[in-house]
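Usage

Read records sequentially. Each one opens with the input sequence:
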Amino acid sequence: MIRILIADDHTVVCQGLTLILEKSHEMKIVASCSNGADALNWLRSNDCDVALIDIAMPGMNGIDLLKHLRKEKPKLPALVLSSYPEDQYAVRLIKAGAAGYLNKECAPEEVVSAVRCVLDGKRYISPAVVEMLVNELNLPDGKPPHETLSNREYQIFLLLASGKTVSEIADAVALSPKTISTYRTRVMEKMYLYNNAELMRYAIDNHLMN
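and closes with the structure output:
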């Protein structure tokens, strides 16, 4: 029996995934957590074969959970299932150690196939992500500015580009407004931008927004 942990703060999503995965009769959901901290605490005293995690969760989000898992559970395959389009996070998270990336709009059978794939020690990479990886390999040495950002900086960049205020972002990622302001400054410096309007324009021009 394949034991699966789900980390997602949407009850409907968790219930839907449970129905999809347990329908195969070879998979069982052994834990369902609404945030990264709960998932990490569960994993510190329990085991599973695959972790299925969302990016946007209250408190410890999926990006931070993945970072902890690479240190504490390096052999546990973590499959990211998110509502964010592949072009926003997929390549970054796979480079950060995710075993695969799925968009929540994918077909149910693709989720089952992805779980089986990562359980076999492989990475599940959709055709869309393969194309992005190939395009990245063909990039000249001079990377576009947003490619120089750390994963956290990139997360803050997207939230700023979506029009959220520093306070709103601080609440969303469970950091202080002062810390978010520091990240904003770093993002602006690395991307050679001067204000939020320029940042939003950059995100739109480079097709980084939904």
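Summary fields computed downstream for this record:
- The chain has two domains: 2-136, 145-205.
- The chain is about 50% helix and 10% strand.
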